[in-house]
Amino acid sequence: MFQERVLFVLSTKKRNILVCLLLVVLAAVGGVLATDYFDDRIRSLPIGNETKEVPHITALCYHEVTPARPKDIFNVPPDQFRSHIRQFREQGCNFIDLQDIEEYVKHNKPLPEKPVLIAFDDGYKDNYTYAFPILKEEHAKASFFVVSHSIGAENRMTVSDLKEMVAAGFKIGSHTVNHEPLTSMSDKQLDYEFKTSRDELQKLLGIKVYCIAYPCGFANDEVMKEAKKYYDFAFIASIDPHHPQTLFNINRYGVFKWNTRVASIFRQTAFK
């Protein structure tokens, strides 16, 4: 309650920065909890009156990939990003995308062993300029969660960029309309953020959008309840791979500039 009151009185920009910085700290601390993360178990968990199977995957959250801003904690330089891809392959991992998860959820199509989801948040221009070519060269699948009202803004991808990536086989998910923290919103506000972002992305890109990554990775019961109206699954920011998951709070790990080795994302435990 105290945290929610503090966030409420801050300006929108400062509130977003504070929330995301808290997420960085939690992700760094939470990495110590990741054990046996690459097994191929499937967790069967209740959602409402149904029972859905949540795939046990390694889902990653990147933001920027650029040679500029070397001190930016959210930036993974291009050579480091390429190295991550190769390190995962050396560990016998297989890259998946949002469509693979959708087909698992809807049609029970099996996922490969040691599935890794490479995903980017926010729609930064460098995702197109640097990450996109590397992914194509390395033949690695990836997905991009885009803030719909940021498309074409300064330092953000354009519709043309996104269409080219979609044509190359990469997948797009929602990251809401405005990238605002969701847990303090009314149902009406949540409905707007979820429905409008989905509809805008579908109209602009001519694709089906069936999943969302919550801004800054936070969600509560009300947020997940509204998300179910428009999406088939959703991602949170994870600090504990063993907490009970549903299709609307699937774990994702943040990747930051200090993660030169992929094992450091999980504090070395995932590869022992």
General description of the model:
The protein is globular and about 45 Å long. It has a single domain (2-271), classed as Glycoside hydrolase/deacetylase (TIM Barrel), CATH 3.20.20.370. The chain has helices at residues 2-9, 12-30, 78-90, 98-107, 125-137, 159-167, 187-205, 221-227, and strands at residues 42-47, 50-55, 58-62, 94-96, 115-121, 143-146, 171-174, 211-213, 233-235, 253-254. The protein is an alpha/beta fold. Strand 5, helix 5 and strand 6 (143-146) form a beta-alpha-beta unit. It has 8 helices and 10 strands.
| Tally of contiguous helical segments | 8
User: What share of residues is helical?
Assistant: 25-40%
Alpha-carbon distance between the termini? 39 Å
Radius of gyration: 17 Å
Largest sheet: 6 strands, parallel
User: How many beta strands in the DSSP annotation?
Assistant: 10
The total number of structural domains is 1
Task: Give the second-level CATH assignment, the architecture.
Answer: Alpha-Beta Barrel
The proportion of residues in beta strands is: 15-25%
What CATH calls the topology is TIM Barrel
CATH homolog superfamily: Glycoside hydrolase/deacetylase
Task: Note the topology.
Layout: H1 2-9, H2 12-30, E1 42-47, E2 50-55, E3 58-62, H3 78-90, E4 94-96, H4 98-107, E5 115-121, H5 125-137, E6 143-146, H6 159-167, E7 171-174, H7 187-205, E8 211-213, H8 221-227, E9 233-235, E10 253-254
Parallel strand pairs: 3-5, 3-10, 4-5, 5-6, 6-7, 8-9
Antiparallel strand pairs: 1-2
